[in-house]
Amino acid sequence: MHPFEYVRPSAADEAVATVSRDRHASYLAGGTTQLDLMKDGVLRPERLVDITRLPLRGIMHTTTSVHVGALTTMEELAADPVLAERLPFVREALLLGASPQLRNMATIGGNLLQRARCRYFRDPAVAACNKRTPGSGCAAFTGTQRMHAILGTSPHCVALHASDVAVPLVALDAVVRARGEDGPRAVPLTRFYLPPGTTPDVENMLRHGELITEVEIPLLPEGTRSHYLKVRDRVSYEFALVSAGVAVRLDGDMITEARVALGGVGTIPWRAWGAESVLRGCRVDGENFRAAAEAALEGAVPLPGTAFKVELAKRTLVRALETVTGGRP
User: Fold this and answer.
1) To 5 degrees, how large is the angle CA 206–CA 238–CA 299?
2) Distance between CA 32 and CA 100 in Å, rounded?
């Protein structure tokens, strides 16, 4: 591992100042992804700023939202009774997102910032990776492609966003609150992540040194049903081939409100706006669900190795809708 300096600040402002003024510094929280990347030589920070003892941990409830400190662990949030009652698909995504050992270490802020699971990004022996070395090319276009994206891709990168919990949080219009040297700001999660475009190395809207302090999760109205369905190669801890997070309100057999997001298919957690538009005001019906799935995957650009994901994602979304509504095709 590359040598680095270890720093433990006593306050958030001190942490922000330390990282903001050093281009080679980065934050350390749970470390469940960062330390792996450092061991592999992908990340080489010269200074690690340990924020684990800062007062950024805990869960607070209001009548309309859940406020989650960035250092709250996945397991702590999954155990929250309000989350279980009002936002079950967030809890399901947390529990399906990692093993118990990892959930007890991984933080919510860190999970939202986890780096791509692209095998080429994580292997420094592969020279062509625009995300790791801008301008070097993308090895995925000629290599193994099964775990790559089909939505939000560009000719420069097809790396997949790996977070499970980000999927329902995007569907909920959750808000990320961050603090930098210019002060605090709030960014909706639907705008927080950036598709690769021509700059795959820039993954989100955080400026260097900005520190996520809190995630605000809106509560669904009473009576709203939600479900997170994850399809993967094995039942034990594994990343999604495809996943769907759905929330619907019903009036009899009519869908009055719908929120839909997909995982395992996008370079960012993918909000399926088209599917939501199809579902609102329609009956609980298999044909309507399929129409929503078609809308959700509109614009997909698969590679030969990811072509199977188009139909798999459609079927996953239909099944999630059937489960949450009790409907049948």
Assistant:
1) 60
2) 12
Residue 93 backbone phi and psi in degrees, to 5: -65, -40
Label residue 161 by pLDDT band (50, 70, 90). Answer: very high
Q: List, in order, residues 6 or more apart from 263 with CB less than 8 Å away.
A: 161, 163, 164, 166, 167, 230, 240, 242, 243, 244, 245, 269, 270
pLDDT tens profile 192-239? 999 999 999 999 999 999 999 999 999 999 999 999 999 999 887 789
Q: In this structure, how many other beta carbons lie within 10 angstroms of the beta carbon of residue 31? A: 18
Domains of the chain in start order, with CATH, are 1-50 (3.30.43.10), 225-325 (3.30.390.50)
Edge-to-edge order in the sheet of strand 25-28: 5-7, 47-50, 25-28
SS3 202: coil
Closest by CA position to 267, among listed 113, 127, 107, 148: 148
Place of tokens 């492609």: 145
d(CA 28, CA 18): 13
Phi and psi angles of residue 196, each rounded to the nearest 5 degrees, phi first: -65, -40
Mean pLDDT for 115-133 is 94
